[in-house]
Amino acid sequence: PVIGASQVVSEFGLLGLFRGGLFDTFRFLPTQVLNIKLKDTINRSLEFLGRGLLKNIISGTVAGAISLTFVYPLDASVVSYTMSNGKKSFIECLFRSNIYSGFAISVIGIPIYRGVYFMLYDIVRELVFHIQIVHLLS
Predict the structure, then answer these.
(1) Which 8-state DSSP code applies to residue 97?
(2) In this model, does residue 121 exceed pLDDT 70?
(3) Which of 42, 48, 51, 83 is deepest in the core (most CB within 10 A)?
């Protein structure tokens, strides 16, 4: 990492370390909003499963896959734009890159990543809510 960072600084200057960071900022917020809202909506539609880890993993996985469908083109375009070293515009990279070439493998990883993430999110959220109620009642 140090050798790569020093090479980037020598070729592109200190700002080269932050190339693409602005796009990541604009991508992160919609991703999280979609994930949380979709997960809660899907979770409510899976009430027949009762409470449990399986329901959280399924709803987190489906929410992650749906949000990835909308956000993945931005990710692929940011990579294409960064690799072009500014020779192409971001819009050109968005419309001319092979956007969904790695989409399938990304979706395959979602149950592991997003399913477990939302499972832990729900557990921590319930614990914090329970602690707040106990604190208020005591």
Answers:
(1) S
(2) yes
(3) 42
Question: Distance between CA 93 and CA 10 in Å, rounded?
Answer: 25
Lookup: tokens for 112: 């592991």
The reply to whether the predicted model has a pTM over 0.85 is: no
Q: What is the DSSP string of 13-38?
A: -GGGGGTTHHHHHHHHHHHHHHHHHH
Residues 62, 38: Cα–Cα separation, whole Å: 8
Other Cβ atoms within 10 Å of 46 Cβ, number: 16
One-letter amino acid for residue 14 of the chain: L
Residue 78's contacts (CB-CB under 8 Å, 6 or more residues apart) are 20, 23, 24, 27, 90, 93
What would the two tokens of residue 15 be?
Answer: 């700002």
